Amino acid sequence: MNHLGPFKLLPTSRGVCQECAVNHKPHEPHNAQSMFYQYHFYSLWGRWPTWADAMLHCSEEIRRITIEVLAENGISISTEQIADAKKLSNISTKTLT
Ligand SMILES: [Zn+2]
Hints:
Layout: H1 35-45, H2 51-54, H3 60-72, H4 79-96
Bound molecules: zinc ion.
Residues 17, 19-20, 22, 24, 30 line the site of zinc ion.
């Protein structure tokens, strides 16, 4: 389902992440502040993404490092936020099928 209604995102540039339009490795988190990521996520799930959503696909180690870096920059992410993102992702996936 496209929650953006009649609007559609243009494709990203080649060589960048197709979800956030930022050049990062697949095992690294998406840039939650990327406008492309925000609209891409919203189009899929009908809600705006959080940093927890952006790192949901990452390993526990990458999540831990990302959470530390975000904390150094004044952004706190709790394990509960990660758990909530997982739950919402599962709910949204079930809704889509
Ligand atoms: Zn990305």
